[in-house]
Amino acid sequence: MNFEKVSWNEIFAEALRAIDKVGGLLLVSHKRDTGQINAMTIGWILFGTVWGKPIAAVLVRPSRFTHSLLEENPFFTVNVPSLDLSQAVADCGRYSGRTMNKFVHCALTPVYLEAFPVPSIGECIASFQCVVVAKTHIKPEALTAPIQEAYYESNDYHTVYFGEIQATWKRKDF
């Protein structure tokens, strides 16, 4: 599971295609040195340049365990799985990190790359290390009626976290 550092714009298009097929895995951890990390399945992600910085924007509902961890610790990684990890991606979306260790359940390996405080997933093909530089809350009045009806029936409006990409890694065999 050897990784090499690459430029974010060298790999983001390929990462988006992979995430579109199977989903991505967002990793967060407690600020306290508890060693507790959590993986959450994501399908909604944006990559681009904002404020002159490379940004990965992720959407997380307040009801998710990941949301409370991101509020506590502003570091996260976006991990890009291959198709053979589709069951792990499904399970990370199905179960809560409040009640189970998803890494044990899904046989995933946390890998710390350089000194970044949140690990990447060793089995994934790429990872974006990010630090939150801004966040905003989705407001119901800003949504069109079809989006409101299709995605927010329970009124659990996402927080959008804008993470400045600190480093991007890809597996050497990718």
Q: List the secondary-structure elements in sequence, H or E.
A: EHEEEEHEHHEEEHE
Q: List how many beta strands DSSP finds.
A: 10
Give the terminus-to-terminus CA distance: 10 Å
Instruction: Average the pLDDT over all residues and give the rounded result.
Output: 91
Q: Given the C-alpha coordinates, what overall shape results? A: globular
Provide the structure class: alpha+beta
Number of helices: 5
Can you give the helix content as a percent range? 25-40%
Whole-angstrom Rg: 15 Å
Uncertain residue ranges: none
- What is the makeup of the main sheet? 8 strands, antiparallel
Strand coverage percent = 35-45%
Description:
By secondary structure, the chain is of the alpha+beta class. The protein has a domain at 1-38 and 77-156. The protein contains 5 helices and 10 strands, in the order βαββββαβααβββαβ. It has helices spanning 8-22, 65-72, 86-94, 102-106, 145-151; strands at 3-6, 24-29, 37-42, 45-50, 53-60, 75-80, 110-111, 120-121, 126-137, 159-171. Strands 1, 2, 3, 4, 5, 6, 9 and 10 form an 8-stranded antiparallel beta sheet that branches. Strands 7-8 form a two-stranded antiparallel ribbon. Strand 7 and strand 8 (120-121) form a beta hairpin. The longest helix is centred in the N-terminal third of the chain and has 15 residues, at 8-22. The termini are close together. The model has no long low-confidence stretch (mean pLDDT 91).
